[in-house]
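Retro notes
What went well: the complex prediction finally ran end to end.
Inputs used:
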Amino acid sequence: MQLVDSTYSLIEFADICIAVKQTEMLTIDQASSVELVTSSDGNMGYFIFDKKRIPTYQLSEHLRPVPLASELKRDDYCIGFKTTNEENYFSIICSKIDKAEISKAITKIQQVPRFMNGEQAVISSLCQYDEKLVLLTTADLLHQFISHNQTEEKLYA
Amino acid sequence: MPEIERQSEITSAWLLAVSRSFSIAVAQVVVAEYILEPELKLVPGSIDYCNQVVNWRGEFIPVMDLSVLFGEEALDSSSIAVIAYQEYQGQSLQYAALKLSRGVEQIEVSDESMCDIPEDFPEIMRPLIDSIFSHDDQVVAVINLADLCNEGYSDYILAMRRYQIEKVESAA
């Protein structure tokens, strides 16, 4: 009997913990490797992966992009993702990353009730892991949500 | 023939202050637990009046702040009432929680206290009203909790908001 459904990466930032399947991740690197570019819109960040310059986002607890700090913390990480159609690459900054085997057999995974969904749902399920709330999402959902909320980033930049 | 005196039915209910200015009443059996200082967790991307959950008896249940629906300032997280509802007969009990602005109060409701919906009653609550009555000079609604916890209602809220935005944009 296969107990483990998937290996997830637990990604912590801004007091929340999201989980994305490891197969949807490109790479993990130190945040210090992010190239910062200052423009009229504020600081933009780019991460070089496979000769591609992919945008880097710092996200709030609401998963909305916030302006990048002018200096990224040494201990932070930058995680690269690609969408299923392989058309979009992006990366996010986090303070902690861990690995977890999340399985329906050993972890109670709950769907987010549909009435909780806003204009753009980003969290598909919830579970408790190591006594903390883990929010399950995918690279596709994250990318859609970040793109949808980028206007807000510009407004507050 | 002697006249039969009609007795007005009196029912006990819980009065839940779901915002600073508005209360709802629910049947006593509906409130599963009243919790002080609950540990609420944010679920990003959720609709603004229901974007938190609480771990209740080993399960995460949605927490609603109806004051956000009324356009009022969000309530703090000092107390919640866990409510039980069924979307259809025979369904196992579903649970959700409502943030409260003050403690729950037990009241008695009779047919005589029923009243009409006041004109200034929040438009967005009207589809949920089962009945309405006055209590201590305050209008209190009995709402359908299964409808409140239904995607049809959250879709209605989102559609109303989109309509308001479009109206403002077209007027500008």
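What we learned: DSSP finds one helix and 13 strands in chain A.
What to try next: split runs per interface for comparison.
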